[in-house]
Amino acid sequence: MTRLILIVVAVVAVIWLLRRALAGPRAGKPPGEAGEQKGELVACAQCGVNLPKGEARGAGGRFYCSEEHWRLGPRDG
Ligand SMILES: [Zn+2]
User: Fold this and answer.
1) 6 vs 1, 13, 16, 30, CA distance in Å?
2) From ligand 1's centre to the CA of 27, what distance in Å?
3) pLDDT of residue 31
4) Residue ranges per domain, the chain?
5) pLDDT tens digit sequence for 42-59
6) What pLDDT does 77 receive?
């Protein structure tokens, strides 16, 4: 039973390290090459923060980071 727990802990640790390694270097890839992807980042039209497209609120071809900014609308008018 102890071995099973050790294996589970090891697997979780490996996944955690891989996620950290993937999230670390961001400046390497050139922008605009990926195109439409699931993990695509979009900029909030109100405050400019980048967030995944799936978590953004879309309206009129623009994206917002939160419901508050969605209500405020784009900063540039
Ligand atoms: Zn925002």
Assistant:
1) 9, 10, 15, 40
2) 23
3) 57
4) 39-77
5) 999 999 999 999 999 998
6) 60
For 18, the token pair is 């891989």
* Secondary structure in 3-state letters for 11-62: HHHHHHHHHHHHHCCCCCCCCCCCCCCCCCEEEECCCCCEEEHHHCEEECCE
Q: How far apart are CA 74 and CA 46, in angstroms?
A: 5
Distance CA 77, CA 22 (A): 37
Residues with CB under 5 A from ligand 1 (ion): 44, 46-47, 65, 69
- Residues shown for the chain: 77
Task: Output the CA 62–ligand 1 centroid distance in Å.
Answer: 11
Task: State in Å: Cα 38 to ligand 1 middle.
Answer: 20
* C-alpha 58 – ligand 1 centre gap (Å): 12
